């Protein structure tokens, strides 16, 4: 009799153990499937967001319902770029985040040149007045840095290179951004005025290049040659970032 009860007890114990193992494996399988689903969703999001194209009316739509826009420039395959791309702010409200792969479209390359893009990822904070109020480089502590910019505590990271003092850098690239928007909206007169406002705060290859493009469209040969040479000179003077290779390639094609 004792042997019978002991046998039943062992069977009950083993059944319980097998049930627990089974439940554990089911739980593990569900967790793996959920993680795989999340990975697929993140991959799909990265695929989608690396194909955004900068358009002339983009800021209008971004700032219509948000107080700030955060435009990030980077490139596909950059792990920090992808981390920042899928990271959502937890304390900053009313900010629109958008990522642009600089090599995906010629408009994105224009944007990167206008904003003097020199690192990956590089984010520019824009307010409702369409002014760039700060810049953040990299992924680490990005939200705290953006928060400090919005609160007016710190304009963020500085733009590298042989450029004017930092506050003027932001004004310079703000007007270059405006000029690019006008150019994409087929408003050459407004683009011309904006790029000259940018040049009043500092000169870099993009402003010279944009004037080269505008004067080429107008057929002013003397000015075309001047701004083409100035673009080359500014790059040769030490502003040699990969983003300005597009300028060199464009100028080379007309020599």
Characterise the protein shown here:
By secondary structure, this protein is α+β, with helices and mostly antiparallel strands. The protein has one domain (58-252): Glutaredoxin, CATH 3.40.30. The protein is built from ten helices and four strands; from the N terminus they run ααβαβαββαααααα. It has helices spanning 2-49, 58-64, 79-86, 106-114, 142-150, 166-184, 188-199, 205-218, 221-236, 245-252; strands at residues 68-74, 95-101, 122-127, 132-137. Strands 2-1-3-4 form a four-stranded mixed sheet, sandwiched between helices. Strand 1 (68-74), helix 3 (79-86) and strand 2 (95-101) form a beta-alpha-beta unit. 33% of the residues are buried. Mean pLDDT is 75; it is low at 161-167.
CATH topology category name: Glutaredoxin
Overall structural class, as computed from helix and strand content, comes to alpha+beta
Main sheet overview = 4 strands, mixed
Order of strands side by side in the largest beta sheet?
A: 2-1-3-4
Number of helices: 10
CATH evolutionary superfamily: Glutaredoxin
What's the mean pLDDT score?
75
CATH architecture: 3-Layer(aba) Sandwich
Q: Hey, roughly how much beta strand do the residues contain?
A: 5-15%
Radius of gyration: 27 Å
Count of all domains? 1
Highest-level CATH class: Alpha Beta
What are the segments in which pLDDT stays under 50 over at least 5 consecutive residues? 161-167
Number of strands: 4
Structural shape: elongated
| Terminal residue distance | 104 Å
């Amino acid at each position: 009799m004792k042997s019978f009860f002991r046998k039943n007890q062992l069977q009950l114990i083993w059944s319980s153990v097998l049930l627990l193992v089974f439940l554990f494996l089911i739980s593990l399988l569900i967790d793996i499937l959920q993680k795989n689903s999340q990975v697929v969703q993140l991959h799909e999001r990265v695929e989608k967001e690396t194909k955004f194209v900068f358009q002339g009316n983009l800021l209008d739509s971004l700032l219509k319902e948000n107080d700030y826009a955060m435009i990030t420039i980077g490139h596909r395959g950059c792990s920090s770029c992808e981390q920042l791309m899928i990271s959502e702010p937890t304390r900053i409200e009313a900010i629109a985040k958008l990522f642009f792969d600089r090599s995906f479209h010629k408009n994105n390359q224009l944007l990167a040149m206008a904003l003097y893009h020199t690192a990956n990822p590089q984010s520019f904070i824009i307010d409702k007045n369409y002014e760039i109020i700060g810049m953040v480089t990299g992924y680490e502590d990005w939200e705290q840095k953006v928060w400090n910019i919005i609160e007016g505590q710190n304009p963020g990271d500085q733009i590298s290179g042989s450029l004017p003092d930092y506050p003027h850098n932001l004004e310079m690239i703000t007007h270059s951004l405006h000029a690019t928007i006008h150019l994409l909206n087929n408003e050459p007169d407004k683009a011309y005025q904006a790029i000259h406002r940018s040049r009043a705060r500092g000169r870099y290859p993009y402003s010279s290049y944009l004037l080269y493009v505008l004067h080429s469209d107008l057929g002013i040969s003397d000015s075309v040659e001047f701004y083409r040479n100035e673009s080359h000179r500014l790059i040769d003077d030490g502003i040699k970032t990969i983003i300005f290779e597009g300028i060199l390639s464009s100028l080379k094609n007309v020599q």
